[in-house]
């Protein structure tokens, strides 16, 4: 789209309230030329603000398997590069070898009869180092081994602790629990990296930048816990933190693992102090959100909109919501700032402005298309399913730069 056409498109948005999408496929939830998205009044706790996003339409996503589901059932195998030799006939046992491991490569096999959905930011633990997935993708059912592009989030280890990767030690409400009135159920799952770490993998695609973000988060968490070593009355995100033993701070200082830090009991308490009130408020809106086809959220920290995650269906949002809200809370918990109001109009404009000046498209014919768009002060990523009877965007993420 040339600059003149882009200006015309923006004018059309302002005058008619429509998002001009040109000749590209409709995004998840779009109807005709309308964006089909609407941001609702926000849910707030401390310096974290979350705007629910509803859509005109839900798409059928029941066939997609999540990484958590696949790892728990054993139908999805993730191992070090070099851990599986050559292409393997489906349903046959993998041939394991013990060399060839690489920092930025893993091998994944989907033995399920369902296509696997992977989201950038999901963390798998084990192997020789914990890794974060670098981009959204779809892995077809009963796949042969595929190379998985990843980034290390544990710079201090290169010793194998397990042959295969698995879910982390993190626990949260079970898949689908909160919106189905089953919030008390607990399940193990993979962590979702907080936005500042996730962005380095998705946008910068630079291992050193990912490590720098992990080290910064570890340092910020240590600083936060150090403030709470005694029964302080200083509020952190609107909550008085509990006293933290010095041994806990020292333990986190010694680890280089992002996952182990986030699984620490004291860290989880601080994240829960932000995440649980938001989950409770979200629970109170369940009826409205399901009836109005809730498909995502726009996220603001310290009064600045930083992120959006939007899915093709309410069902997918329900599956990812427990770990997404904790990732947003992890971003906010170390900021130590008071609540700052963010108007819903700003969230709506952030959601609608998806057209970039430059696009990079990667196709896996018949499986998925991954699009990265760079705009003024943002990057947006869309994963479009090309599987039979689909053709819609399964997930859209947008980050501020």
Fold topology:
Elements: H1 3-16, E1 37-39, E2 43-45, E3 48-55, E4 65-66, H2 67-73, E5 76-80, E6 105-110, E7 116-118, E8 122-126, E9 131-133, E10 137-139, E11 146-152, E12 165-166, E13 171-173, E14 186-188, E15 191-192, H3 195-204, H4 207-227, H5 246-254, H6 258-263, H7 265-284, H8 286-291, E16 294-301, E17 304-311, H9 314-333, H10 344-352, E18 358-364, E19 368-375, E20 378-385, E21 393-400
Parallel strand pairs: 4-7
Antiparallel strand pairs: 1-3, 2-3, 3-16, 5-6, 6-11, 7-10, 8-9, 8-12, 8-15, 9-11, 13-14, 16-17, 17-21, 18-19, 19-20, 20-21
Question: Structural class of the secondary elements?
Answer: alpha+beta
* DSSP strand count: 21
What percent strand?
25-35%
The percent of residues in helical segments reads 25-40%
In total, the number of domains comes to 1
Describe the main β-sheet briefly.
9 strands, antiparallel
Distance between the termini: 22 Å
On the 0 to 100 scale, the average pLDDT is: 76
Residue stretches low in confidence (pLDDT < 50, at least 5 long) are 2-34, 86-99, 173-186, 230-234
Number of helix segments?
A: 10
Spatial extent as radius of gyration: 21 Å
Shape: globular
Structure description:
- The protein contains 10 helices and 21 strands.
- It is an alpha+beta fold.
- The chain has one domain.
- Strands 1, 2, 3, 16, 17, 18, 19, 20 and 21 form a 9-stranded antiparallel beta sheet that branches.
- α7 (265-284) crosses α9.
- Mean pLDDT is 76; it is low at 2-34, 86-99, 173-186 and 230-234.
Question: How would you summarize what this structure contains?
Answer:
The chain is of the alpha+beta class. It is 30% helix and 26% strand. The longest helix is centred in the middle third of the chain and has 21 residues.
